[in-house]
Amino acid sequence: MTTLVKIGPAEHGRPMTLGELEASELAEGHRYELIDGRLYVSPAANAPEGFLETWALRKLMRYAEDYPAVINHACGNARVFVPNQADVTNPQPDVAAYHDFPRPIDLRDLRWQDVSPVLVAEVLSADNPQKDLTRNADLYHQVPSIKEYWVIDGRDDPNRPTMTVHRRYGRRWRLIHVQPGETYATRLLPGFELVLDPWS
């Protein structure tokens, strides 16, 4: 019988392979990523952040149902494998949307390594906002399939979040700032409009 190794916040920064992470028992209440072959542990979303994650995911899931030729799958807590890294790097966005997610497929054969999103979104955490503002902005730009990266910020007031859209523009991101109550539309998702109101 295989004995699972239990890991938690104390293992933050520990060198680890993907196989070791997948074979470990993970302490609840945290998110576990591999960045440059090292374990990155961060707190799970609190209730306001979780609400904003679900709100954004719900909007994209509805769009995927109506426009499956544009995006055919949206989910939370995906893994994005960043190419051309010396060691495994797979940040886990709060929300990810895919253009060509394989369907139908035997789900036993599905691996995150085999799919890559066109859009990812993160909800900022007061505990470590730089993870999403700096680290992930760089990592997601290295993934060619990702055309937009949304950063939703409800730290001051989750009822009135702001959003910064990172839109791929050659070798850099072009930043678009969306204020509370404003409507965001993008050519990436024809017919999509996001009113920046978590109760919409």
Q: What is this entry, summarized?
A:
With 200 residues, the chain is α+β, with helices and mostly antiparallel strands.
Describe the structure.
With 200 residues, the protein is an alpha+beta fold. The protein contains three helices and twelve strands; from the N terminus they run βαβββαβββαβββββ. The protein has a six-stranded mixed sheet with strand order 5-6-7-8-9-10, with helices on both faces. A two-stranded parallel ribbon has the order 1-2. A hairpin with a 2-residue loop joins strand 3 and strand 4. The longest helix has 20 residues, at 47-66. The relative contact order is 0.13. The model has no long low-confidence stretch (mean pLDDT 95).
Helix-strand blueprint:
Elements: E1 5-7, H1 18-22, E2 24-26, E3 30-35, E4 38-43, H2 47-66, E5 73-76, E6 95-98, E7 119-123, H3 130-141, E8 148-153, E9 162-169, E10 172-178, E11 183-185, E12 193-195
Parallel strand pairs: 1-2, 7-8
Antiparallel strand pairs: 3-4, 5-6, 6-7, 8-9, 9-10, 11-12
Give the low-confidence spans.
none
Radius of gyration: 17 Å
Strand order of the largest sheet: 5-6-7-8-9-10
The structural class is alpha+beta
Question: What does the average pLDDT come to?
Answer: 95
Overall body shape: globular
Largest sheet: 6 strands, mixed
How much β-strand is present in the residues?
25-35%
Task: Enumerate how many helices there are, as a single number.
Answer: 3
What is the straight-line distance between the termini? 50 Å
Helix and strand pattern: EHEEEHEEEHEEEEE
Number of DSSP E strands: 12
The helix content is: 10-25%
